[in-house]
Specification:
Blueprint: H1 4-11, E1 30-33, E2 41-45, E3 47-51, E4 60-71, E5 74-83, E6 91-93, H2 94-106, E7 112-114, E8 117-125, E9 128-138, E10 153-158, E11 167-171, E12 176-180, E13 194-195, E14 197-199, E15 202-209, E16 212-218, E17 227-228, H3 231-237, E18 245-251, E19 254-262, E20 266-269, E21 272-275, E22 278-283, H4 287-295, E23 298-302, E24 311-315, E25 320-324
């Protein structure tokens, strides 16, 4: 008999870690915020869900970061997308989209489809109006939409294309995201900005881990993990005597094994020093992912857990960031 955990694992198959440098190296979606003169900053509430782990491990809190999405004329049920700045493009999930199409057409939505893509689709991400010239519809394990149930319906993933050329604010104190046409609209007096780099729409932030300079990729799709790093760094950073825990996680079409151990290490990012608390490594990643990390001089990937209680501003136009308490 299929265990309860296994059933939950399939249901949450739509919630994935990024960890996929090889997927969509060339952008395949075209999605742009539709700012107006009076709406140059848009608020998006954060919606957190926990992810189950095999007993006796407790669920992972802040397991995934979701954002609400709405379509004009459609209010049958709350819909969400995962907010994944580690993924270069926005995608819809095939079975969810198949259930959405007839309802959107019934309320007069105009869009076109061409194979595994949809063109000229309008919707809102929180308060942010979005126009997608082209969106990929991705086949995955997510089932169709249960219109009558009370479960959380995740219809796709918001990628880094949403904020290309814009300023992103991840306010982990106020549990909100802001997307701004320019950082002057969201920066506060005293904010100090530091250069970072963007490669293939991945955001690489300079950091010092226990005093050693490196670069960390910000991956909001790996939300529950503070720092995912190599096996050698994981072994070195683990607290002496700490007992690791291991459990399966989904990474798009793969199932990986996460190994997590307590650490006393700290990470300095900009003007702030953060306790890492737990360091992780992933077993089952591809050869390409390891090569990409070494090529870009990356010390690992930072999920949302590292930044809880802080405010992170990422100005993708100037490629400068600010982290504040």
């Amino acid at each position: 008999m299929t265990s309860i955990y296994a059933r939950l694992f399939r249901v949450l198959g739509a919630v994935t870690l990024c960890l996929t440098w090889a997927c969509a190296r060339k952008p395949t979606s075209e999605i742009r915020p539709q700012f107006t003169a009076k709406e140059a900053v848009a608020d998006i509430p954060m919606h957190w869900i926990s992810l189950p782990r095999p007993s006796p491990l407790p669920p992972l809190d802040h397991g995934a970061l979701l954002v609400p999405v709405t379509f004009e004329g459609l209010s049958d049920k709350p819909l969400y997308m995962q907010f994944d700045m580690g993924h270069p493009t926005t995608v819809l999930y095939a079975n969810k989209w198949a259930d959405l199409v007839p309802r959107l057409r019934a309320v007069g939505q105009t869009f076109t489809t061409d194979g595994p893509t949809v063109q000229n689709l309008s919707f809102r991400v929180g308060a942010l109006p979005v126009r997608a010239g082209r969106l990929v519809v991705l086949a995955n394990q997510a089932p169709g939409i249960d219109w009558k149930g009370d479960g959380v319906e995740i219809i796709g993933t918001i990628g880094a294309d949403l904020v290309a050329g814009r300023t992103l604010v991840m306010d982990f104190k106020g549990d909100r995201i802001q997307v701004a046409a320019d950082r002057s609209l969201v920066a506060r007096p005293g904010d100090v900005f530091t250069p970072f780099s963007i490669r293939w729409r991945r955001m690489l932030i300079p950091a010092r881990v226990d005093g050693k300079a490196t670069r960390i990729m910000y991956d909001s799709g790996s939300s529950a993990f503070a720092l995912i790093t190599s096996e050698s760094a994981w072994t070195r950073m683990g607290r002496p005597g700490a007992i690791p825990t291991s459990f399966p996680v989904r990474s798009w079409k793969r199932t990986l094994t996460a190994h997590v151990v307590d650490t006393d290490a700290t990470m300095q990012i900009g003007q702030v020093t953060l306790p890492i608390q737990q360091v992780s490594r992933m077993e089952g990643t591809s050869w390409w992912q390891g090569m990409a990390m070494r090529f870009f001089g990356m010390g690992g990937m930072a999920g949302n857990r590292l930044f809880l209680g802080h405010r992170l501003i990422l100005d993708t136009a100037r490629q400068e960031f600010c982290l504040s308490e």
